[in-house]
Design a protein that fits this description.
By secondary structure, the protein is of the alpha/beta class. It contains seven helices and ten strands. A six-stranded mixed sheet has the order 1-2-3-5-7-8. The protein has a two-stranded parallel sheet with strand order 4-6. Strands 9-10 form a two-stranded parallel sheet. Strand 7, helix 2 and strand 8 form a beta-alpha-beta unit. Helix 3 packs across helix 6. It is elongated and about 95 Å long. The model is unreliable at 2-13 and 182-192 (pLDDT under 50).
Amino acid sequence: QAFFCLLLCIPWGSSCPPSCQCTERAGAKAVLCSSQHLQEIPKDIPRDVVLLKLDANSITRIPSNAFRHLSHLEEIDLSGNAIEKIDRAAFRGVAAGLRSLDLSGNRIRSIPKEALLALGAKLRLANNPWHCECALQEVLWEERLDPDSVRDITCHTAPRQEYVGKPLLQVLHAGANFCSVRQRSTDVAVLVTMFGWFAMLVIYVICYVRHNRERSCGHREHPPALPGARGRAE
């Protein structure tokens, strides 16, 4: 952190996004766009930036490939925005070197797990209106969350009212498992589908048997005339 603080003090002369400040130290570059009323992520961020601060703006969405050309990024700060949607490929291209990703203090209710795949970054997700569900639980299990921010991940909404307003960790420690609820729902859907196919098969067999029986009865009621009898009648 001290290293990144030093970056704030030394300006560099290459292109810099409007309303942003750019600094450099020992070849490492920082782009500082804090509190600039930005509504989207700037398009003209230099490719060799290491630290990108976009906090305290009005950004509402992180689109696919928003940082794909920034392969040197080590830290992204998007805290204190109005982010509601994060695309599945939002962080494609920065997974390898990214060490810190701050999404705290936004309006995020859910985040696609695919957006965080292969990220080795320490995540800050606190102070968002989270919907506690299986996807969020899997993020908690599989991703590297900042220990200081995990306690502030609270269930704004949840499948059960008793979880609302409580920290996610507290809910999980009490024995809740949102993924098992989804698994049960999937199992029920599979059983209903199988029952539907079985019922259709039974109905088909019943109709087939009934149809053949009616045809058999019709033959017995109208037996064909024998050749000898037809000749005598003539």
